[in-house]
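Worked problem 6 (solution included).
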Amino acid sequence: MKTISLWTIVISFLMVITACSYFETDKELFSVRVDGKEGFINKKGEIVIDPVFDRVGEFHDGLATVSIRNVSGVINEQGQFLVIPQYAYISPFSEGYAVAVSHNDGQFSRETFFINHKGERMFQDLDIEDAESSFTNGLAPVRIDDLFGFINRKGQVVIEPEYMYVRPFSDGLALVRDADTRQFGYINAKGREVIRVEYDDANDFSEGLAPVRVDGDIGYIDKRGNIAIEPQFQEGQHFSEGLAAVMIGSQFGFVNQKGDIVINPQFDMVLHFSEGKAAVRVDYEWGFMNQKGDLVITPQFDHVEPFQGGLAKVYIGNKVGYINHNGEYVWNPTE
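Solution. The predicted structure is:
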């Protein structure tokens, strides 16, 4: 079942995303699409915000981005506009702020800035070229003069832009990529390099460990930079609920924080554990397994997303639905 390349991008994103602020297990509202328009349902599958938008984002901090005719605004959980559609793009809100890109006659402007819940532009004196996400741990990554650093919630540059690339803070540390060597390391909230920039590839910390690539293989380090799990895997995801997906040969299984294989490699592709289940792909179809490795929801979907708030988003062709932990539809697939 070879599908459109968009989903390769989506699944790749889901595989590498860590336990960041954008992943909410206490989710109450879920986006749906009906007759080409999008709105929101609750956990019972009841429509609570009518499908009247061209596009919606998921709720974060009680707010969701919505788009009408390629212009984005922000609504609250009652469906009321807090920010009238006026921007080309608005990121999910985090710690009271979101990243916005201005709109100009239907064209994307290169002007990027932060807004508050009212849609007001913040930090007027801050001239940034780019910001990939909003705040975590009181700091947000920004690009100034082609290099990345961090600002605080007052809009002050507190970690000077000197990196080719940075990730938001996770587990108290931020992944950075050196502009000269192009290697990866980690800094703390004061900007001090606490784990040397020496890795060819790396990802965020989660549950005290981070995957890093050493001599072509993925292993895991602790927050002191010590090797916790020897590099031996072709690929490795972040830890979630005590387990991390790793690739051995051409298939994925799961290891614990000691590096013991607890679910044997047997899957084409997997996502991280959430609410006790992990999405797995078998013969090009997705289902879910528990932490014992037992398939508890039979593979039958073209694509899925991890469980959040008791429901999982599932895709069949162009239709999208939601299932509960028993694999029962709470919202039958619609488009």
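Discussion: The CA atoms of residues 105 and 251 lie 48 Å apart.
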